[in-house]
Amino acid sequence: MSKPDDLPFLIGRIAAGDKRAMKAFYEAIGPDIHRFIQTRLRDPHEAADALQETMLDVWRQAERFEGRSSARTWVFAIARNKAVDRIRKAPIAVAEPDETIADDRPNPHDSIEALDDADALHRCMGTLSQVHRAAIHLAYFQDISYPQIAAIEACSVGTVKTRVFHAKRLLLHCLSHTGARLRAQALSK
Amino acid sequence: MADREDDDPLQAFVRGRLPDAEAERLGSDLAWDPHLAAEHRLVEALNHVDPAPHPFPGAFGWARLSRAIDEERPAQERPKALWRRQVPVWQAAACILVVVLALPMGSQWITNTPDSARFVPATGPTTAQPGASETPVQQASATVRIVFAPTATAQAISDALQATDATIVDGPSAIGFFTLAFATDDALAAALPQFADMPAVIELIDPQ
Q1: Which of A51, A90, A148, B128 is the most exposed place for a label (fewest CB within 10 A)?
Q2: Where are the domains of chain A?
Q3: Which of B72, B208, B68, B78 is nearest to B149 (CA)?
């Protein structure tokens, strides 16, 4: 895990041309950035290249970092732009999943049962659009505040709240259906 | 924190940031509201489930980045490196010849390499060759050291390795060398001219 307190210091050193500081920065926050990029880019090579471009931009732009946003927000925003650029340049646009929510209310017991299956949540995350996956990832796994997510995603705080709310509903529906299926399978045995 | 005011109270609860009174109220609501309880379980799970399907590029990624940074530095700031010298064609050809002649020594070195020294490519499937053993180091009999071009993409590197049936078994060194292993001497001999035709991917072949 990165240590947020170290990042502004490291960026200062990077701005002075200190390559060891760049390595420390890469090792400190690179894994989190790589995870975030993968919420948008599923191809491992694309994700690795977007990480490389992000870190190269940190090296190039470190002297322009003024500390108006947190260092973490700043580098996540660069990564978001790199990922979005790659999606736009893709020769074939990747179709986003149909996120229409059925009228039925998810069964909470089925959702909870599905959460006991470690793979169920991964599968349900895979059914989300990349925008919803990114919002959920930033809000929960990365524990980044809504205003900071808004800065990263270049949108309003209201949009972030809507995305997180909608993504959670989609996940609960998906988990509910998975749980119901698991229950039916158990009964048929 | 002021910028946390709009955040999901369940996230604040899970992370222990919710004020005691609110946490107590939420705790009692969780006991009777199954929908809230399901959402709470979801938020808890989202805090702990790593969504990344592919491992962090790690040392391999740093080697690429380090080289790209060196490319951007003014020439006088760059470290003096072997591959920056103008190497005449005859010297390059001699280097390749030395590699081929040194294969038995290379194979001896590679079979003596301890398990802990193996480099597992961080991009996972990029170097997993069809039909390859899970322990390519033990079977490899031919190796060569190379430097990837700083501008080479992960896809291009993966393609180059697959095209030549090469596996990264060590690296990067402090100056960016990777050791590639091949199943047979013939495979290495066949790969060398292919590497020579890939200047955008492989910048230098080192005789070791």
Answers
A1: A90
A2: 4-89, 108-187
A3: B68
Q: Closest CB to B34: pick one of A109, A139, A164.
A: A109
Full-model pTM: 0.69
Q: Which ipTM did the prediction report?
A: 0.89
CB contact under 8 A, B154 and A59: no
Which of B1, B5, B7, B151 to probe the A interface (max A CBs under 10 A)?
A: B7
Distance CA A37, CA A26 (A): 14
Q: B164 or A105, which is more confident?
A: B164
B65/A contact by beta carbon, under 8 A:
yes
Is B111 near chain A, with CB under 8 Å? no
Nearest Cα neighbor of B68 from A82, A89, A55 is A55
> Is B117 in the A-facing interface, judged by CB distances under 8 Å?
no
- Right CATH for A4-89 from 2.30.22.10, 1.10.8.50, 1.10.1740.10, 2.40.50.100: 1.10.1740.10
- Which of A13, A51, A124, A140 to mutate: most B Cβ within 10 Å? A140
Q: Give the residue on A whose Cα is nearest the Cα of B1.
A: A145
pLDDT tens-place string over residues A56-99? 999 999 999 988 789 999 999 999 999 999 998 876 566 666 66
B6 and A CB contact within 8 Å: yes
Distance CA B177, CA B156 (A): 17
Phi-psi region of B130 (alpha: psi -120 to 50; beta: other; left: phi over 0): beta
Range A33-58 average pLDDT: 94
Helices (H), A39-141: 44-61, 71-89, 108-115, 118-125, 130-136
